[in-house]
Amino acid sequence: MTQLPGQPNLSPQFCFSTGTLRDFLRLSRSSIDDSIAQNLNALITPSDAGFDPQSTSRRTLPSASREISQPACQAFKERVLFPAWQARAEVLNYCGVVATSPDPDDPETALREVENQRDRERVVDERLDPYSGRFFPREPRTETLAMLVRQERGVENIVRSRTWDVVQQRCAAPYERWEDAVSRWSDKHHTNKPPPGR
């Protein structure tokens, strides 16, 4: 089965390092969702008894049109697909909370204060310089992070919908929304954990 990317250690520094955050999401999506057809093809057992020389004399259906057994599909969803989605959701939820929390450690706070003070002291005469009224303050890093999290959540919904369409077709499963399938898996996954201290 496909190896899942490791869950990152969640910290505000991880979230504010937007390159690291994007790399985690990109790696997770490329190893699971972007290669969903290959991942599902790997679930089809080509032969139970080894190579049959007669198999080269007749044409077989391409693997994309062959159904995958329900147990194999279910195992793939529960052990690979849903945990990858859950890991990405946890990262985005955590970083969403960081983006809406106070950020006393923002290294640009002092610089923004200086720029704002200079802007208040500026003399604006748009008759002499039509551009003198322009001022573009630096955004706090929490606002930049919040915008990134919103964008990535949108991307995540698109990626999940496309992946789920392929899974539904290849597994020949009765139609089900991915949100419902993940919710059911999550309920089962969290209720089967032993209580702490046992």
UniProtKB/TrEMBL annotation:
Protein name: Caffeine-induced death protein
Organism of this sequence: Purpureocillium lavendulum
Compositionally biased tracts (Polar residues): 53-65
GO cellular component term of the entry, any: mitochondrial intermembrane space
Domain of life: Eukaryota
Record-stated family: Belongs to the MIX23 family.
Residue segments, region Disordered: 45-65
